[in-house]
Structures are given as structure tokens and as C-alpha cells.
Design a protein that fits this description.
This protein is 11% helix and 17% strand. The chain is α/β, with parallel strands linked by helices. The strands form four sheets. It has a 25-stranded mixed β-sheet, with no helix packed on it. The chain has a two-stranded parallel sheet with strand order 24-26. The longest helix is centred in the last third of the chain and has 37 residues.
Length: 572
């Protein structure tokens, strides 16, 4: 007896089971008909039972297990292995179902692969699906091109398509969400209609329901995200508590961990923005913006802006802006810059520990420890290492240069006040004096003054010069010799010698002097003390008195000569 006949004889011993050899089929099941199709292999109670209907042209099927491929009529190139595997399949082709009730409801679905207990059990017309794991793709009906790998992976998916879920309970609740990729135990477990999501890591995107276009990588990354969209979280626990926040990027262990509703944030570093819940923030560095609640901030450096509550701040450097709470619109650059600022705003500090003690507003500190010894200055500028304000109440104070210190408001200080060798040059690179200027110094405005103090010099001796400083008609200070000039000849005293000039009688002069204690036409001492006197006018008046005195002398000489002549006549 050849090997084929021996095998068939052994199977005939199974009692009620009948072997039907029709065309090229091998059928081992309950007796039905001798013409069930072509190249089909059927093994199990009532498996492939519908193949026996007249006119059926099902080909190249393999059904193994009770009721496997029970309803298949014209479906071809199927492989069903397991009790009730592909039970309802009618015309579906190119399917592979392995496991008890795997693909049970599939009717016309094609090119599906279901492996596991009840895997794809409700699939009816869905195509191009691959489900591997007990109850994987359990509820899938018409969805297509899905890949579910793991126990209960894609369990609730009905119409969602082009999804890839790998891991126990991965995408378990997904119903109509499309084009999602979930890799890891319970990743995207609660996702229902969310689409274009990529979750990698145990429980990543666990609570996501309708959120879309998210990418979560790391254990628990985006764990509580529900409806947030366009987020990217990389790192264990990154964005774990994010719920509705959108367009966030968190990279690092527990970065943005407690952000719930904040949007448009970028956090890079372990626990960066851990408690942050503002919008449009960028934090880079371990713990940067750790407990920051403001918006539109940029923090770069470990622990930068860790307790910030303000907005529109830019902090760069280790521990920069560490104490800032509600201060806003600040720019701090350098380790510990703005370290004690809490409520001050509009400040710019550049340098290690620059403005580290300041808590004022609208200040500028540039240089190592610039403003280090100051507290609450306002609108002040400190440029240079160790520059400072002497008082915390100063406003609009400026100190420039190493160790420069300003002690009053509305002042500009150049250099260290204790440095007696300090020279300042304008227009020169080698100043020789405390202020050495090349060019013109212009003093503007009604309040403009050029003031000299401490002019007394006990060592000064006359050097015979007749030069002096004066101001010309252009307002320029010039070095010149003394020169008196009048604008009108009538202002000078020569009129005394003009014909008709009335010379006051000496008796009248005597009377006037006795009464007023000064010469006629000259100011009194009181008038000079209170009003001053014009030098040119005074000189003209003094010359007038000299010329009048000359006339008095000439008149006296004439009178004297006349008396002498008269006396000489009497003597003769």
C-alpha cells in the first residue's frame, strides 16, 4: 500500500469523519460533498463547510480547526488555524488567521493577518491588517492597513486605519484614530480618535484621546496628554502632565513634567520647565525654568530662572535670574547675573554676577560683578568690573570704568574715584590731564555753565602774562589780552571837550558830593553792589571825570595867571 493510501486509511478510522478526495482537495471533516473547490485543505469539524455548495470556486485555502473558515464560499488563498478562526469569512482572500476565534467575523476582508486568541475577531471588511496577540484588534471592523502587536493592542479600533500599535494594551481604546504609531506597553492606551501620533515607551501618551500630531518618546512621556496637539516629548516623564497644551517640545527626563495647558514651549534638559505652565517659553539646561510660570521667556543654563513668575525675560548662564519672581523684560547674561532680582523689570545685565544684588528696574550692568554692591537703583547704567551705586535709591546714575562708583542721582562718573592718576581723553588716545579734549567743547542752553572751583593756588606766582580767557561773539572761550572797545564814539568821553559842553560848577560838585558821597554821573557803592557795573561804561565815566578835572585845572590856571598879572601891575 503506498504512503498516500496508508494515510487515508488511518484517517478513516476516526469514525464519523469522512475523507473526501475530490480533484486536488484534501478534506478531513464531517461529510458534505465530493466537489468543494480546488487545492483546499480542510481539517476540523464543520471547517470550510460552505465549500461544499455547488458552484463554489474557492481555491488554495487551508482551514484547520472546528468551524475554521466555516462560511467561506469563494474566498481563496486563506489560511485559518484554530477553532472558529475565520468563521464568517465568505469571499475574503489572502488572509491568515491563527488562534481561537481569530478573524471570526471577517467576511470580505482581504490580506489580513490575525494571530492570537480572538485577534481581529470583529473584523468584517477590513483589509491589509496585521494583528498579533490575544484580542489584538479585537473590535476592528472595516479599518485597513493596521498593525497591532501585543495583548489587547488596538483592542477598540473599529475604523481607524494605517495605525501601528506594539505592546500590551498599546492603542487599546483607539476607535477611528488614523496613522498613529504606538510602541510600548500601554502606549496611547486611551487614544480614541487622535491621529498622526507617535508614542514610544511604556505608557507614553497613555491618556491621549483626540490629540493629534504628537510625538512622545520615553516611559510615561506625555502620559496625561488628552487633546493637546503638535507636541514633541522626548525623555522619561517628559510632558507627563500635559493635557491640552499644544505645539510644545520637551526633551529630557521629566522636562515640562507638570505643564498642563501651556502652549508653544521648548524645554531641553533634565526637569527643564518642570512646573512651568506658561506659553512661548524656551528653557535649555538642567532645571532651567524649573518652577517658572511666566510666558515668552528664554532661559539657557542649569537652574536659570528656576523660580521665575515674570514674562519676556532672557536669562543665559548657570543660576541666572535664580530669584526672579514677577520681574519682566529682563536680559541677564553670565553666571548668577541678576541673582537677587525679584520684581525688577527692563534690566540688562551682562557678565558674571552682573547686577547680582540689584532689584531695581531699567538698569544696565555690563562687566564682571557690575552693580554687585547695589540694591534698588532705577534707570542707572554701570559699565565695567565692580562698578556700583553707593545708594539703593539712586536714579539715572551712571558709572563707567573699573571700580567706578556713583553716589548721586542724575550723574555720570568716569573711573574709580579713589584713583588720582585717572585721565579722560576725548579725541585723543593719550590724555595728559583729568579731562583732555581735542576739539571744541560746546555748552548749550540757558542753563549751560562752565564753572571753576578751587582756583586758589598758594604756590602760584605772577609770571608777567597779560593774557586772559574771554568769550567772543560766537560764544567761544578764547585766550586773549585785555582790550576795551565801544560800539559808538558817542559812548566815549571826548564830548567833554566839545564846544558847548556844560561843566558843572565846582560849588555844585561840592554840594552833590557832600549830599551823595560820590561824584556826579558815577554809580554809588550800593548800586554797584546790587546791580554791578559795565566795565566799558565805567571806564568811559572815569575818563569823563579826568577830562572834566583837566578843564577845571585849565580854568583854574587861567584865573590864577590873570590874578598874578593884576597883582604885578599894582606892585609897579
Amino acid at each position: 500500500m503506498n504512503k498516500q493510501l496508508r494515510f487515508l486509511w488511518l484517517l478513516s478510522l476516526l469514525g464519523s469523519t469522512q475523507i473526501a478526495l475530490a480533484q486536488t482537495n484534501l478534506i478531513v471533516r464531517t461529510p458534505a460533498t465530493s466537489t468543494p473547490g480546488t487545492n483546499n485543505t480542510v481539517f476540523g469539524t464543520l471547517s470550510g463547510i460552505s465549500l461544499s455548495n455547488d458552484g463554489v470556486r474557492a481555491i488554495n485555502n487551508v482551514f484547520v480547526g472546528a468551524y475554521a473558515g466555516y462560511g467561506t464560499t469563494t474566498g481563496s488563498f486563506n489560511a485559518f488555524l484554530g477553532v472558529d478562526a475565520g468563521h464568517s469569512n465568505t469571499t475574503g482572500s489572502y488572509n491568515a488567521f491563527l488562534g481561537h476565534s481569530a478573524g471570526y467575523t471577517n467576511t470580505t476582508g482581504n490580506e489580513n493577518t490575525f494571530v492570537g486568541l480572538s485577534a481581529g475577531i470583529l473584523n468584517s471588511t477590513g483589509t491589509y491588517n496585521t494583528f498579533l496577540g490575544a484580542e489584538a484588534g479585537f473590535s476592528n471592523t472595516t479599518a485597513y492597513a493596521n498593525t497591532f502587536l501585543g495583548v489587547d493592542a488596538g483592542y477598540a479600533n473599529t475604523e481607524g486605519y494605517e495605525n501601528t500599535f506594539v505592546g500590551t494594551d498599546a492603542g487599546e481604546s483607539n476607535t477611528t484614530g488614523n496613522r498613529n504609531t504606538f510602541l510600548g506597553t500601554q502606549t496611547g492606551k486611551a487614544n480614541t480618535t487622535g491621529f498622526f501620533n507617535s508614542f514610544l515607551g511604556e505608557s507614553a501618551g497613555f491618556s491621549n484621546t483626540t490629540g493629534n500630531n504628537n510625538a512622545f518618546v520615553g516611559n510615561g512621556a506625555g502620559y496625561r496628554n488628552t487633546t493637546g496637539n503638535f507636541n514633541a516629548f522626548l525623555g522619561a516623564g517628559a510632558g507627563s502632565y500635559n493635557t491640552t497644551g499644544l505645539e510644545n517640545s520637551f526633551v529630557g527626563y521629566r522636562a515640562g513634567y507638570s505643564n498642563t495647558e501651556g502652549n508653544f514651549n521648548s524645554f531641553f534638559g533634565k526637569e527643564a520647565g518642570f512646573y512651568s505652565n506658561g506659553d512661548q517659553n524656551t528653557y535649555i539646561g538642567v532645571g532651567s525654568g524649573y518652577d517658572s510660570r511666566g510666558s515668552s521667556n528664554v532661559f539657557m543654563g542649569n537652574l536659570a530662572g528656576e523660580n521665575n513668575r515674570g514674562s519676556d525675560n532672557s536669562f543665559v548662564g548657570f543660576w541666572v535670574g535664580r530669584s526672579n519672581t514677577t520681574g519682566g523684560s529682563n536680559c541677564f547674561f553670565g553666571r548668577d547675573a541678576g541673582g537677587l532680582n525679584t520684581t525688577g523689570g527692563g534690566n540688562a545685565y551682562y557678565g558674571v554676577s552682573a547686577g547680582s544684588s540689584l532689584n531695581g528696574s531699567r538698569n544696565v550692568c555690563i562687566g564682571y560683578q557690575a552693580g554687585w554692591a547695589s540694591s534698588d537703583g532705577r534707570n542707572s547704567t554701570l559699565i565695567g568690573a565692580n562698578t556700583s551705586l553707593s545708594s539703593g535709591t539712586l536714579t539715572n546714575a551712571t558709572a563707567i570704568g573699573y571700580n567706578a562708583r556713583v553716589a548721586v542721582s542724575n550723574a555720570v562718573i568716569l573711573g574709580d574715584p579713589t584713583n588720582t592718576s585717572l585721565n579722560v581723553g576725548i579725541g585723543t588716545d593719550s590724555p595728559q590731564f583729568p579731562l583732555d579734549v581735542r576739539g571744541t567743547v560746546n555748552i548749550r542752553g540757558a542753563g549751560g555753565k562752565l564753572k571753576f572751583t578751587h582756583l586758589l593756588n598758594p604756590r602760584w606766582t605772577p609770571d608777567g602774562t597779560d593774557q586772559l580767557l574771554t568769550v567772543n561773539d560766537k560764544g567761544e572761550v578764547v585766550l586773549t589780552r585785555y582790550r576795551l572797545q565801544i560800539s559808538n564814539p558817542n559812548d566815549w568821553s571826548d564830548r567833554v571837550f566839545a564846544p558847548g559842553y556844560r561843566l558843572m560848577p565846582l560849588a555844585d560838585v561840592q554840594s552833590f558830593v557832600q549830599k551823595n558821597q560820590h561824584l556826579p554821573g558815577l554809580p554809588s557803592a550800593e548800586q554797584v553792589a546790587h546791580e554791578g557795573v559795565d566795565v566799558a561804561t565805567l571806564n568811559a565815566k572815569l575818563l569823563e571825570k579826568i577830562e572834566e578835572l583837566t578843564l577845571y585845572i585849565i580854568d583854574l590856571q587861567r584865573t590864577t595867571n590873570q590874578r598874578i598879572k593884576e597883582l604885578e601891575k599894582k606892585v609897579k
